[in-house]
Amino acid sequence: MTVHLPWEHEQLVVRRGRRSGIPTMVAIHSTVLGPAVGGCRMKAYPDLAEAERDVLRLSAAMTAKFAAAGLSAGGGKSVIALEPGQRLAADQRRAVLLDHADLVASLGGAYLAGPDVGTGPDDMLVLRETGPHAVCLPESAGGIGSSSGPTAQGVLAALHSASAAVFGSPDMAGRRIVLSGHGSVGGLLAQALATAGAEVLVSDVDPATREVAQRLGYGWVEPEDATGTEADIFVPAAVGGIFDADTEVGARLVVGPANNQLVDDDAAEALAARGVVWVPDYVASAGGVVYALAREIDGVDHASATARVEAIGDVVSGLLSEAFAYGTTPHREAGERVRRRLNAPRRVAV
Ligand SMILES: NC(=O)c1ccc[n+]([C@@H]2O[C@H](COP(=O)([O-])OP(=O)(O)OC[C@H]3O[C@@H](n4cnc5c(N)ncnc54)[C@H](O)[C@@H]3O)[C@@H](O)[C@H]2O)c1
């Protein structure tokens, strides 16, 4: 099987589950800063090569996320690759999760899984049956449960810092904000922004959301118009791959949790050339994993873990002030920060 990506990863392990017969895989991009951490994605792919591309791309993004946030964790991701249209009964789901747990355990702690598209805290409890290699357990099992709350909190910290840098005030009151994706994170963001006095316009591909948005007093924007609608701030909280070099953007500032928002690095340059300030998604979206690692791995209390999430705002202030001072972009400055951290000399135990 050919994977058309630059090979810069430490490991890609693919195994067909002995219980389920379903292929599952783990990609470890980098353990330079610590054990690799990243979500376990369970979804249908057209073929296995597509699943491999996804897990490689996503694990590399996790390295950047941790390095930019100043955390001692590396980039990893895992995938349970279903066939198109495949639906799992409860016993099959448990079987494939145990298969995946075996694969994760065989890596001896080099990779820690968390929930992602298609998996949740209850699934992490199944992965824990064969070893301590999963985070974001259900609250009933002593874990943090869903990471949406701390993710939204990190995005809000990023929004306040970026607004201060771009508009001269962190205040959201009176700002016109278009938010794409009224899901778990987007719903919390819309609520917090509206409460802070912003004019919130929601956009979502799920038509049922329109009624919800109206009931909550938000405006509505059709999904195809979301990026181009005039606003102070655009918040991408749905899917990735939304900005290429030609995307029309109607907002001055873009900050949101959606992973991998840029089609490629040229998109960041094109946004900057048009006067749009884009806060890198891998910085703004780190709150969930920052909080989960702080509580479940480092064992710190809620207040200390929350302070680490809030520190995302300081990272954003630093990136924007450097980008404005040197005439570069927040994306380039974040990339520099990631490179510096990954290449910093380290003491090696002998
Ligand atoms: N949940 C977390 O803790 C977390 C952490 C980091 C990053 N993220 C990223 O943030 C984004 C949102 O996560 P979530 O947990 O809220 O997901 P979610 O599935 O709960 O919500 C996504 C919402 O986006 C809508 N949507 C899908 N495609 C769309 C499109 N093309 N245009 C407009 N709306 C669309 C869906 O209908 C849904 O309402 C995702 O990209 C996710 O990878 C989430």
From TrEMBL:
<dbReference type="InterPro" id="IPR036291">
    <property type="entry name" value="NAD(P)-bd_dom_sf"/>
</dbReference>
<protein>
    <submittedName>
        <fullName>Leucine dehydrogenase</fullName>
        <ecNumber>1.4.1.9</ecNumber>
    </submittedName>
</protein>
<dbReference type="InterPro" id="IPR006095">
    <property type="entry name" value="Glu/Leu/Phe/Val/Trp_DH"/>
</dbReference>
<feature type="binding site">
    <location>
        <begin position="181"/>
        <end position="186"/>
    </location>
    <ligand>
        <name>NAD(+)</name>
    </ligand>
</feature>
<dbReference type="InterPro" id="IPR016211">
    <property type="entry name" value="Glu/Phe/Leu/Val/Trp_DH_bac/arc"/>
</dbReference>
<dbReference type="GO" id="GO:0006520">
    <property type="term" value="P:amino acid metabolic process"/>
</dbReference>
<keyword id="KW-0547">Nucleotide-binding</keyword>
<keyword id="KW-0560">Oxidoreductase</keyword>
<feature type="domain" description="Glutamate/phenylalanine/leucine/valine/L-tryptophan dehydrogenase C-terminal">
    <location>
        <begin position="143"/>
        <end position="347"/>
    </location>
</feature>
<dbReference type="Pfam" id="PF02812">
    <property type="entry name" value="ELFV_dehydrog_N"/>
</dbReference>
<comment type="similarity">
    <text>Belongs to the Glu/Leu/Phe/Val dehydrogenases family.</text>
</comment>
<dbReference type="Pfam" id="PF00208">
    <property type="entry name" value="ELFV_dehydrog"/>
</dbReference>
<dbReference type="InterPro" id="IPR006097">
    <property type="entry name" value="Glu/Leu/Phe/Val/Trp_DH_dimer"/>
</dbReference>
<dbReference type="GO" id="GO:0000166">
    <property type="term" value="F:nucleotide binding"/>
</dbReference>
<dbReference type="GO" id="GO:0050049">
    <property type="term" value="F:L-leucine dehydrogenase activity"/>
</dbReference>
<dbReference type="InterPro" id="IPR006096">
    <property type="entry name" value="Glu/Leu/Phe/Val/Trp_DH_C"/>
</dbReference>
<feature type="active site" description="Proton donor/acceptor">
    <location>
        <position position="77"/>
    </location>
</feature>
<keyword id="KW-0520">NAD</keyword>
<dbReference type="InterPro" id="IPR046346">
    <property type="entry name" value="Aminoacid_DH-like_N_sf"/>
</dbReference>
